[in-house]
Amino acid sequence: QGWPIRFDDGRDPYTEDSTAIHSSDWYDYRDPNQTWQRGYISGVNESEKALERSFEGARAAGLFGFADKKWVSQGLAKHYMTYPFIEYGLFLALCYAEREALSDTATFSIVFEAGDKLRHLQDVVYYSFELAEAFPGFSDDGVHDAWLGEPIWQGARRAVENIIASNDWMEVIVATNLCFDRLFGELAKVEYFSRFAAANGDVVTPIIIASSEADTARTQRWSAALIEHVLADPVHGTANREILTSWIQKWNAYSLEACEAFAPVFAQAPAKPATFQSAMADVRAKQAAYLSNLSLTSPARA
After folding, report:
1. Which residue from 28, 108, 233, 266 could staple onto 237, CB 3.0 to 4.6 Å apart?
2. Residue 302's pLDDT is what?
3. For residues 77 and 139, what is the distance between their CA atoms, to the nearest angstrom?
4. Helices (H), the chain
């Protein structure tokens, strides 16, 4: 009688051809974090309360005023406030992936990550209200135009839009969690927004990013378990490895293009604790170590 029994085009809601990856039993995958709905909601509630208390403490102590004004107008108003477009795009891609996933054990891992993306987006938007109170004249009015046309964001936008357009749910996971977030996400959020914020007297932004990175660590663990599951499959493991390797090569190319486009921001901050080249070396080494633990290879840069 129609969706969710069947999709609009008449196909079944769960079909093996929803991904090129095969498993002899998708239900054998288990989330190593053992995340469940009640625990997740409780943890998110505590994280948001802690973040709110951090904002209150920063206001009371006058910590917002420590930040370099140029960093606030460029690093935060112009760049950091644009990042929610990435989180929302990946949220959309993950929503598709969770609908297509072939076991509820995989579905819930993806659902919780999608929830994380939406929460991180909302945290940055809420932060913009705090910044507007702390810095008269603060405005993020230009971020939509920046996302659509600013050269530094076009590599990231191209990558995110292509992830959204993918119709293979496992490829969405690989593209997002093994490639894009491991390269561009680490470069922008950790190496630039967090590290450069601290160097420019901004002690509040790193707190927000630290909260999101705790979620990222949880995502890395379950993603690794899912990849290990399909690689260890006695029937399909070898073929799965070939497909995963080709996907990593494909999405690393998109991610590295995004990183290269983002490079100019490293020269714009008043205080520059790192170069783009050193930051890239760090994120590439982290990704290579993550993939190596899965017995996968990070493609050499062309």
Report:
1. 233
2. 41
3. 6
4. 37-61, 69-71, 84-100, 104-134, 143-149, 151-165, 169-173, 195-199, 205-231, 237-262, 276-293
